[in-house]
Design goal:
GO cellular component, one term: cytoplasm
Radius of gyration: 28 Å
Keywords: Cytoplasm, Repeat, SH3 domain, TPR repeat
Strand order of the largest sheet: 3-4-5
Largest sheet: 3 strands, antiparallel
Number of strands: 5
Protein name: NADPH oxidase activator 1
CATH class of the largest domain: Mainly Alpha
CATH architecture of the largest domain: Alpha Horseshoe
GO molecular function, one term: superoxide-generating NADPH oxidase activator activity
CATH topology of the largest domain: Serine Threonine Protein Phosphatase 5, Tetratricopeptide repeat
Strand content: 5-15%
Number of helices: 11
Main location: cytoplasm
C-alpha cells in the first residue's frame, strides 16, 4: 500500500476516535494491510473503549512485536493483563516498561504523535497493583512507597493506609481512552493538498512526445518519451521545446501553459 493511502486511512481512523466512533476507527485501521506499531496501538485503544479486552491485548501484542522498545505499549499491556487477572504476566510487562524508560523519569510521546506523558512512578504504581493481586503485600507496599516518592506528591498516603489496614487491590493506571498516535500535521496538510490537485496530468504542448506529471512537491518531472523528437524547424516549436525542457531542468513548473 502506498504511504499516502496508509496516511489517509490512519488520519480517518483518528478522526473517528475523536468522534468516539470506535467501530468506525477499527474499520479504517483494518483496511491497512501492513500496520505499524502506532496503528496497532490505536486499534488496542479502540477495543478497550468497547470493552474488548482480548482483542485489545492481541493488538498490543502486535504493537510490541513491531516495536520492542515502546515503553508505553508494555505499560498499557500490563494494565490490560491486570484487568484480565493475569498478574504474573502483567508484572513482567511492568519490569520491561521500567527497562525501556532508559533511566528517564518521564517520556513525552508527543514527538511520535501520542499526546501522553508516561511517568516512571506510574509504572511503579502498576507494579504494586500486580503484587497486590498476587498477594505479595510487602512487595506491593515497597513499590507503592517508591512510586509516591518518585512522584514527589502526597497522593500515595491514603493508599498506603488502605494497604496496611484492609489490603485493598489497586486499580491499574492506563493510557486514557482516546489518546492515540496521530500522523504529523505537516503530512496531513500535504495529503490534503495532493488530494486537491488530484491526479491530472499536464501535457507538454509538443503533443504526444513528452509527458510531465505533478508530484507531491509540485515539481514537473519527465515521465516518458512516447516518440522521437520531431525536427524543430519552426521558431515556435523551438521556443516551446526550450520552455518545457527549462522547466524540467529547473524542477519547477511553468506558471502558465503556452496556448496551442
Amino acid at each position: 500500500m502506498p504511504y499516502t493511502e496508509l496516511l489517509r486511512l490512519w488520519n480517518e481512523s483518528v478522526q473517528a476516535v475523536d468522534a468516539k466512533d470506535w467501530e468506525g476507527a477499527l474499520a479504517k485501521l483494518q483496511q491497512i494491510p501492513e500496520q505499524t506499531s502506532r496503528t496497532h496501538f490505536n486499534a488496542a485503544s479502540a477495543h478497550l473503549a468497547l470493552g474488548q479486552l482480548d482483542m485489545a491485548l492481541r493488538c498490543l501484542d502486535l504493537t510490541i512485536a513491531k516495536d520492542e522498545r515502546l515503553a508505553v505499549a508494555f505499560f498499557q499491556r500490563a494494565a490490560v493483563m491486570l484487568q484480565m487477572d493475569r498478574s504474573e504476566e502483567a508484572l513482567s510487562d511492568c519490569i520491561w516498561a521500567q527497562e525501556h524508560m532508559r533511566g528517564n523519569a518521564v517520556i513525552d510521546y508527543r514527538q511520535l504523535g501520542l499526546r501522553y506523558k508516561l511517568y516512571y512512578w506510574q509504572i511503579l504504581y502498576n507494579t504494586a497493583a500486580a503484587y497486590c493481586r498476587m498477594g505479595q503485600w510487602e512487595s506491593a507496599m515497597d513499590k507503592l512507597v517508591s512510586a509516591t516518592q518518585d512522584r514527589g506528591q502526597g497522593r500515595g498516603g491514603n493508599i498506603e493506609v488502605a494497604l496496611k489496614s484492609r489490603r485493598e487491590v489497586l486499580d491499574p493506571l492506563l493510557v486514557p481512552v482516546g489518546s492515540v498516535f496521530r500522523p504529523r500535521k505537516q503530512e496531513i496538510e500535504q495529503l490534503h493538498q495532493r488530494d486537491f490537485l488530484g491526479k491530472a496530468k499536464v501535457m507538454c504542448p509538443l503533443g504526444n512526445y513528452l509527458i510531465f506529471t505533478i508530484c507531491h512537491q509540485h515539481k514537473l518531472h519527465y515521465k516518458k518519451v512516447l516518440g522521437s523528437i520531431p525536427s524543430l524547424g519552426s521558431v515556435r516549436g523551438v521556443c516551446m521545446f526550450s520552455l518545457c525542457m527549462r522547466g524540467f531542468s529547473l524542477g519547477t513548473p511553468a506558471s502558465h501553459s503556452p496556448k496551442t
